[in-house]
Amino acid sequence: MITLRGALGAETSLQGPARRIVSLVPSETESLFMLGEGERVVGRTDYCFEPAGAVEHLPSVGGTKDARVDDVVALAPDLVLMNQEENTEGIHRALVARGVTVHLCFPKTVGDALALTRDLATLCGLDADAHPVVADLARALAEAERARSSRAPVRVFCPIWMDPLMTVHGETFISDVLDLAGGANVFADRTRRYPLAADLGAATPWSAERVGTRDVRYPRVTLDEVVRLAPDVVILPDEPHPFSEADAEVFRALPIPAARTGRVHRIDGKDLSWYSPRLATGVARVARWLAA
Q1: Burial (Cβ within 10 Å: 0-12, 13-18, ≥19) of residue 150
Q2: Can you identify the CATH homologous superfamily of domain 147-291?
Q3: Cα separation of 26 and 15, whole Å?
Q4: What was the pLDDT predicted at 11?
Q5: Do 71 and 91 form a contact (C-beta atoms < 8 A)?
Q6: In the 8-state DSSP scheme, what is residue 207?
Q7: What's the rounded Cα separation, in Å, for the pair 92 and 98?
Q8: Nearest-angstrom CA–CA distance, 84 and 106
Q9: What pLDDT, on the 0 to 100 scale, is given for residue 8?
Q10: How far apart are CA 269 and CA 264, in angstroms?
Q11: Which residues of the chain have pLDDT under 50?
Q12: Is 60 helix (H, G, I), strand (E, B) or coil?
């Protein structure tokens, strides 16, 4: 029996190693292949495109937000991988109601990503601590922590959407990757305000009681706020929004240190937001952009 606890305290129990896995999370699809267990994956989403050349033949069950439950069930999985943020509560409930075993995750830190990689190895019946991919990831993250401790943090702005302009709070996976790479997220303390007009100063913010459990980790911000916070570096990932060269020019035109020193960079967004073992090299790439 394999028993693990995931997000929301949800327990995942399997009689033995998972043999047929449907992954509704691109990062976890990539993780399974990087662990050498890609043959267990029998279904994926439209957005599971890594590793390139290895997943295209797998049937897709739709998107991360609109996966077709009937198609998932038809693949007869003994395990479905889901993420609390990337997938929907409705899909999760529907799968559980159909008797499907689901592992639900919600990594918010790099440490969570390492723990999830161990969990995926365990669900496949592997000795996680002895697995070379897990060991390499743990070693790379430890080296990144040592490197971070030896240099002053770089003030960085990392938007995730352009219109409206949106960024990340400190309690997000992206912000934690930036931190480990040597960046100080200039909006780490900025929460999202409700109603949404309040985010831009056009309405009175709701009380904490009225906001309730709404996610406040992805605020809408203004260019004036970016100017006031004066980032040394602006990082523009190519996902979830594909920041263009025209977008980069908007930030290069601002009176901020990053623009004056030519440190507005467009980068591979997977290095910031995918929590697979690619982090072993991805964090180092982000660190080089921050230092460039």
Answers
A1: exposed
A2: Nitrogenase molybdenum iron protein domain (3.40.50.1980)
A3: 25
A4: 72
A5: no
A6: P
A7: 10
A8: 5
A9: 63
A10: 14
A11: none
A12: strand
What gap in Å lies between CA 76 and CA 80, rounded to an integer? Answer: 10
Assigned token pair, 224: 């004036």
Whether 104 contacts 120, CB under 8 Å: no
Q: Where are the domains of the chain?
A: 2-130, 147-291
By the 8 A CB rule, do 81 and 103 touch?
A: yes
Cα–Cα dist 64/47, whole Å: 7
| Domains 2-130 and 147-291 fall in the same CATH topology | yes
Please report which residue ranges of the chain form alpha helices under DSSP H. 26-34, 69-74, 89-97, 110-123, 132-149, 173-180, 196-199, 208-211, 223-229, 245-252, 257-260, 270-273, 279-291
**Residue 57 corresponds to which tokens in the numbers above?**
């033949």
45 in Cβ contact with 63 (< 8 Å): yes
Query: Quick one: DSSP state of residue 54?
Result: T
Question: 283 Cβ partners below 8 Å, 6+ apart?
Answer: 110, 140, 141, 144, 177, 180, 181, 271
pLDDT given at position 4: 66
Indicate the pTM of the whole model: 0.93
CATH number for the domain running over 2-130: 3.40.50.1980
Helix (H) or strand (E) holding 23: strand 21-23
